[in-house]
TrEMBL record, chains A, B:
Family: Belongs to the glycosyltransferase 8 family. Glycogenin subfamily.
InterPro entries in the record: Glyco_trans_8, GNT1/Glycosyltrans_8, Nucleotide-diphossugar_trans
Name of the protein this chain belongs to: glycogenin glucosyltransferase
SUPFAM superfamilies per record: Nucleotide-diphospho-sugar transferases
Enzyme class: transferase
Compositional bias segments (type: Polar residues): 295-307
Species classification: Eukaryota, Metazoa, Ecdysozoa, Arthropoda, Hexapoda
This enzyme's EC code(s): 2.4.1.186
Superkingdom of origin organism: Eukaryota
Xref: Pfam families: Glyco_transf_8 (PF01501)
Region (Disordered): 265-307
Length: 307, 307
C-alpha cells in the first residue's frame, strides 16, 4: 500500500460533506494513494462512521486532550486553537509524504504526480501572489516540524489570523527560492480567477486539475433541483457551471445515496455548527438535500430527493 | 551615461501626465538610468515638448509610417495595432537593457537593481498568477525579438486581446522555468491586492517599491482639492491613501507647475481621447486640474489651482 496520502480536514458535518466529495473525486481519478481526514469534535458520530467508509485514516484532533510541549504552549493562547487545527496534518507520520486539500476543493484529474514535489510546494494565492494559497500543499509529516510550527505560531501569531498567514511566514522562502515548489495554478485554481481575469481562465482553466471554491460560491451553498439533479448556477458564475455540476454529481451519486438514516438532522447540525464557528461561510442558499429517510418519514417539509 | 533605460508609453495627453509622474517618481529616487517614452500620434505637440524636458528619449511610434516586414504583416490585421503599441519598446536598441513601466505605475523607492535581472522578468498577475503582469517587466531591446513578437502576434493573436496575453504566450516558460525571472510582487504591487487580501497588503505592502494603479482607481480620476492639495480618497481605498496622495504631490510639485499655457485645453483633449479609445478608463471623477493659465484667462469655470 502506498505510504503517500491525500489529507483533508473537517470541523463539522457540513465540511465533512465537502471532505467526502473530495475523497470520491480522488477515487474517480484512480489515485494510487491513501486518504486521510482530520476531524474535530464538531463532527457527529454518524458522520465519522461515514467518513471511515472511504478514508483510510480518520484522525480526531483535540487540542485539549493533547499534552505535548507545543500544545501546552498553545494552550496559553487558546484563541489560536481553531485557526491552527490544520497544522495537525504534520502529525500523520505514518505517511512519508502527503498532499493537503481543503474540503472546498474538487479534484478533476489524476494528480498523483504531486507527490514527486517536495515540502513545501503550493500554488500562488490570487490575493498576494508572493504568498502561496494553503488550500493545496505538498508536505512531509514530521513531529519536529509540527512542534516547530506550533512554537512559531505561539511566538509570532499569524498575519492573517489563519493557517495561510502562519504557513507563509514559516515557509517564507517559497516565493523566491525554488521554482519547483511553485505548483502550477491548475493544481489550485481559485474559483475567483474566473472573474478577475476571465480571458486567462478561458485560456488555461480547461487544464484545471484541482478547483478551489474559495469565496462565497461554495458548491453546497447553491440551490439544487433534486428532480432534474441540476444545480442552479448563480448569475456571473456560468463559467463555473461544469465544476459546480460535477461537485453535485459526485455528491448525489457517491455521497448522498450512501448517507445513513441516523444523519437525518444533518442540515440542522450544519446550521448549528456554522453559528458556532464564525469562520464558516454564511448560509445564503442552504439547499443541501437531506440524507435519505425511510419513506414513511417523508413529509412535504423534506425535499423529495431521489435515493 | 548609463545604457540602461526605464521605458513607458503614452497614447494620449492624459496618459502622458501619468508618464510624467512616473518619470519624476524615478528622478525623486535618484535612478542612475535614462528615461524613454514611446508616444503615439494622439499626443499633442505641446505635451511632446513637455515630455522632452524630462525623458532622454521621446520616440514616436506610428505603425502606418513603418515599412519593415513585421509591421507590414501587422497591417493585415490593423485591429491589433493599438493593442500592441507597447511592443515597440523592443526597438529601443540604443539601450542594452530596459525596464518597462506602465503609465499608471508609481515608483516609491529606488529600483535600479531590477537591471540585474534578465529578459523576461516580471511579477505575477493577481488574476491568474501563472501569468505575469505586463505593467512592469525587464527586457532586452532587439529588432529580432521585436520582429518575432510581431510575427507571433499576427499568427496567434492574444488570448486577452492585449499585450499581456501576447507576451505571456510568447514568454510562456515564465511561470515554471526560472525563479529569478519572478520579480517580487513589491515591484508591481497591484492596487487591487489591497482589498483582495488586505492582511497580506498590511503585512508586505509597506515594502512596496512600485505601485500599479490597476482597475478604476486611477490617481488622475480621483477628486482633488486644489486649495488643500489633498486628494479625496474614495470609500474602500483608505489603505491606498498615501500612494494616491504621493501621486498628486508629484503631479502638483513636479508636473503641473511646469505645464505650459498652450496646454490649457488638456482636460478637453483628454476627454476626447478617452472617447476615441474605448480601452481608456471611464471618467468618473474627472478633476485633473487644468494647466496654469495667465491670470487674465481665469474664470469661475476653471478651478483656481495655485501655480
Amino acid at each position: 500500500m502506498s505510504n503517500f496520502a491525500w489529507v483533508t480536514l473537517a470541523t463539522n458535518d457540513s465540511y465533512s460533506l465537502g471532505a467526502l466529495v473530495v475523497a470520491h473525486s480522488l477515487k474517480r481519478v484512480h489515485t494510487a494513494h491513501q486518504l486521510a481526514v482530520l476531524i474535530t469534535p464538531g463532527v457527529s458520530e454518524a458522520m465519522k462512521n461515514k467518513l471511515r467508509t472511504i478514508f483510510n485514516v480518520v484522525e480526531e484532533v483535540n487540542l485539549l486532550d493533547s499534552k505535548d510541549e507545543a500544545n501546552l504552549a498553545l494552550l496559553k493562547r487558546p484563541e489560536l486553537g481553531i485557526t491552527f487545527t490544520k497544522l495537525h496534518c504534520w502529525r500523520l507520520t505514518q505517511f512519508e509524504k502527503c498532499v493537503f486539500l481543503d474540503a472546498d476543493t474538487l479534484v478533476l484529474r489524476n494528480c498523483d504526480e504531486l507527490f514527486e514535489r517536495e515540502e513545501l510546494s503550493a500554488a500562488p494565492d490570487v490575493g498576494w501572489p508572493d504568498c502561496f494559497n494553503s488550500g493545496v500543499y505538498v508536505y512531509r509529516p514530521s513531529l519536529d516540524t509540527f512542534s516547530s510550527l506550533m512554537q512559531y505560531a505561539v511566538t509570532h501569531g499569524s498575519f492573517d489570523g489563519g493557517d495561510q498567514g502562519l504557513l507563509n511566514s514559516y515557509f517564507s522562502d517559497w516565493a523566491h527560492k525554488d521554482i519547483s515548489k511553485h505548483l502550477p495554478f491548475i493544481y489550485n485554481t481559485s474559483s475567483v480567477a474566473s472573474y478577475s481575469y476571465l480571458p486567462a481562465f478561458k485560456q488555461f482553466g480547461q487544464n484545471t486539475k484541482i478547483l478551489h471554491f474559495i469565496g462565497t460560491a461554495k458548491p453546497w451553498l447553491q440551490n439544487f433541483n433534486s428532480e432534474s439533479r441540476k444545480v442552479y448556477i448563480p448569475g456571473g458564475y456560468q463559467h463555473l457551471a461544469n465544476f459546480l455540476q460535477y461537485w453535485w454529481d459526485i455528491f448525489c451519486e457517491d455521497v448522498h445515496s450512501r448517507l445513513s438514516a441516523d444523519m437525518s438532522d444533518l442540515n440542522n447540525s450544519r446550521n448549528n455548527n456554522e453559528k458556532r464557528n464564525s469562520s464558516a461561510p454564511s448560509v445564503r442558499y442552504c439547499e443541501i438535500p437531506p440524507p435519505p429517510k425511510p419513506t414513511s418519514q417523508l413529509t412535504n417539509q423534506v425535499p423529495s430527493y431521489p435515493t
